[in-house]
Amino acid sequence: MHLYGTQSINENGHLTIGGVDATELAKEYGTPLFVYDLELIRRRARGFIETFHKLGVKAEVAYASKAFSCIAIYQLAHEENLSLDVVSGGELYTAIQSGFPAERIHFHGNNKSYAELVLAFDSNIGCIVVDNFYEIQLLKEISETKKQSMRILLRVTPGVEAHTHDFITTGQADSKFGFDLNSGQADQAFNEVRDHEYLQLLGLHCHIGSQIFETDGFSLAAKKLMKKISEWKDQFKFECTVLNLGGGFGIRYTEEDKPLEPQDYVEEMIKTVQSHAVELNLSMPEIWIEPGRSLVGDAGTTLYTIGSHKTVPNIREYIAVDGGMSDNIRPALYDAKYEAVIANKVNEQKTSTYTVAGKLCESGDKLIIDAPLQQAGSGDILAVFCTGAYGYSMASNYNRIPRPAVVFVESGQHQLAINRESYENIVQNDLPLSLKKGE
């Protein structure tokens, strides 16, 4: 059995995380429950940052917070000297409320609203990653009205297809994100902002996909961006100070996944950028990256209580848990695979095979199909590994199910990071019918 981070098995045969018995966490906080291993998150963050420092390259490592957003995780990111990548007004507002330094916030998104951009200016954030021509016009209008400067990057699609799932590949030409590098769109965008009084163009950004296990795609994307920067330097004397190569670094979900260590991705990026800087006679830019899943994905474990059990003779055995696609949509959306154990029976042999079903009123609400597990009974605690990215952040109230609580654990301590929603929370924005029948 593969254990992640600080996970271990205690003398009672129970799964522990951060030195805390998972069954005790389930008893105290209830289930479903997201449990985050802070030591593992810190280790991942330091792996990226220290590699840049060791190789003497200026960099910013920005936590891609769409993976999991809340005040406490932003405060942890600040403690670990990360920057922050936000993609909405809600994430930006949460970051500001957490006390995160605004100058280290980068704002992404393919359809930022006028109000969201005004919030970014009012908050004096560090950078806006510009995605389209409409946004350029909004930025010009806001910056000129406020007479306020803003640092920007142009997001481009370099035409690199990463080896990943079709739905999470964003660097190819046919993408809703960014300016196409190969058709002249990026050149047009560059010309629209390069001499603007208030928009300070730092350089280029790309993101080639997610859950990537090789470095080849990053190297190819970096090569294409450096070539474009060289063209702009030759034609317009443009000096690129920042090259943002995005994120998408893969993690282990199942034994089929073979991710690299953080330093492996970083070292290959640096090597590629440095070699092309020398070849093209360019100054070495500051390198920015945006790990999200690779910081929090395998640091998260979801605990469920097992309820009903159904046998379909000669076909399948089901066990049902008290959550499902309302707290983890990825299996239904991406056919994502997970591994699990029964947290109170970890030392027992995995003698049974179950399909883990959620409690949502959907036949597709299955978290794991044909999971090898210990013999399961009602009331047992199921621990599903590697749910720290895009679990809680994509959770919903479908079937009016409240979102779970989130707990942080570290060095034998635990604390609530997000309260469990109540039924009262579910109806708090509902209004009674006021229209009169027949009127």
Secondary structure layout plus pairing:
Elements (H helix, E strand, L loop, with lengths): L7 E2 L5 E3 L2 E2 H8 L3 E5 H17 L4 E6 L6 H9 L3 E4 L2 H10 L6 E3 L6 H9 L4 E4 L2 H14 L3 E8 L21 E2 L4 H9 L5 E7 L10 H21 L5 E3 L17 H18 L6 E4 L3 H4 L3 E13 L3 E6 L8 H5 L5 E3 L9 E6 L8 E8 L7 E5 L19 E6 L2 E6 L4 H5 L12
Parallel strand pairs: 4-20, 5-6, 5-13, 6-7, 7-8, 8-9, 9-10, 9-11, 11-12, 12-13, 15-17
Antiparallel strand pairs: 1-2, 2-3, 4-14, 14-15, 14-19, 16-19, 17-18, 20-21
Helix pairs in contact: 2-9, 3-4, 5-6, 8-9
CATH H level of the largest domain: which superfamily?
Answer: Alanine racemase
| CATH class call of the largest domain | Alpha Beta
Shape verdict: globular
CATH architecture of the largest domain: Alpha-Beta Barrel
Largest sheet: 9 strands, mixed
The helicity comes to 25-40%
Instruction: Kindly report the average pLDDT value.
Output: 95
Gyration radius (Cα, Å) is 23 Å
Count of DSSP helices? 12
- Cα-to-Cα separation, first versus last residue: 65 Å
Protein name: Diaminopimelate decarboxylase
GO biological process, one term: lysine biosynthetic process via diaminopimelate
Binding site for pyridoxal 5'-phosphate: 248, 290-293, 390
GO molecular function: diaminopimelate decarboxylase activity; pyridoxal phosphate binding
